């Protein structure tokens, strides 16, 4: 790669240009989706700046409240949530917003209503802020039929009905990974331009990976299939090399690495959390959508993750996602356990 030539490139594919190009392929499009995405991008830029300044601005530390998941809220959580709610409402293109930080869904007032429902986790992994580990925003978008009054059922849909999903990771660089149902693309924020530039076009996850990612501290509470799978990773019986363990504990960072390098990310159900720990609407679904669009798989231990029908907005589910062949192995183990 010629870095010098790259530094002087003038033909930059920004995320705005990319989305407008996609829009031009749909002559019937009114640009609503493009406007919505531009507001999400603005929210990501704002949060990225806030995260970078957190230590200086005394934004670290507790805001003194506890969110609906029983987690102590950091000031940055509260700020990020407000930023995204305001950005999404002001776009005039949304009707229902579901945030990890809010117990109830937000219904947008009729004057500002549009046809999109957005589900999001404004700052995933925020307990890692203090130690500089990558954190991120996760989002998924559903569309409702025109002229219909929005109901909570409009967001309680299987993940396969999403029209787009993505995440923005705030780490050594600020990276936005997006799918609108035609593959996955990664954009990196160029701070000097204030623009997201296409740096990872058409991301494809390797068919098989060398890494597994799981919190092994929960091993004593796992079910038999998960325990057997991790045993296979560490002590393969077929002569293949053992897999490496990498676990950051920030879903966005762990999934981002899995997407680029291959392998599998697991957050199984266990005796402590019989329904798993990750939330279906704004963690499991968007990440599963991206994995499938990149050629991988996502499985709950019982079914394809994107076929799951949630009944509550903060519902949880186990999840196994990553390289196609690696997820096949865990699916086979669960099928074997089911026969016993």
TrEMBL record:
One of its GO terms (biological process) is fructose metabolic process. Residues 13-201 form the Fructose-1-6-bisphosphatase class I N-terminal domain. It is found in: Cytoplasm. Residues 205-334 form the Fructose-1-6-bisphosphatase class 1 C-terminal domain. Its EC number is 3.1.3.11. GO terms for cellular component: cytosol. Its main location: cytoplasm. The keyword Ubl conjugation does not apply. PROSITE patterns: FBPASE. Belongs to the FBPase class 1 family. This is Fructose-1,6-bisphosphatase, cytosolic.
């Amino acid at each position: 790669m010629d870095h010098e030539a790259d530094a002087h490139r003038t033909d930059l594919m920004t995320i705005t240009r990319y989305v407008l190009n996609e829009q031009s392929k749909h002559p019937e499009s009114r640009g609503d989706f493009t406007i919505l995405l531009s507001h999400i991008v603005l929210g990501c830029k704002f949060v990225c700046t806030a995260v970078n300044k957190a230590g200086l601005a005394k934004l670290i530390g507790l805001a003194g409240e506890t969110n609906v998941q029983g987690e102590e809220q950091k000031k940055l959580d509260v700020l990020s949530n407000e930023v995204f709610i305001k950005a999404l409402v002001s776009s005039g293109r949304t009707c229902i917003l579901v945030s990890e930080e809010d117990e109830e869904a937000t219904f947008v007032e009729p004057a500002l209503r549009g046809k999109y429902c957005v589900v999001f986790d404004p700052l995933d992994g925020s307990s890692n802020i203090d130690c500089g580990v990558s954190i991120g925003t996760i989002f998924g978008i559903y569309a409702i039929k025109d002229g219909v009054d929005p109901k909570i059922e409009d967001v309680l849909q299987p993940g396969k009905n999403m029209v787009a999903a993505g995440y923005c990771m705030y780490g050594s660089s600020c990276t936005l990974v997006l799918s609108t149902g035609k593959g996955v693309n990664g954009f990196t924020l160029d701070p000097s331009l204030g623009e997201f530039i296409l740096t990872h076009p058409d991301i494809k996850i390797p068919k098989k990976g060398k890494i597994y990612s799981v919190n092994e501290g929960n091993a004593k509470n796992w079910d038999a299939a998960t325990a057997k799978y991790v045993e296979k990773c560490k002590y393969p019986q077929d002569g293949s090399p053992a897999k490496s363990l990498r676990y950051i504990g920030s879903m966005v960072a762990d999934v981002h690495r899995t997407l680029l390098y291959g392998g599998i990310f697991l957050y199984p159900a266990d005796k402590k959390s019989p329904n798993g720990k990750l939330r279906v609407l704004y963690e499991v679904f968007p990440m599963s959508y991206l994995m499938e669009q990149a050629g991988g798989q996502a499985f709950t231990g019982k079914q394809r993750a994107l076929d799951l029908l949630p009944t509550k907005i903060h519902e949880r589910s186990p999840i196994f996602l990553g390289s196609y062949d690696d997820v096949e192995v865990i699916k086979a183990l669960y099928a074997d356990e089911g026969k016993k």
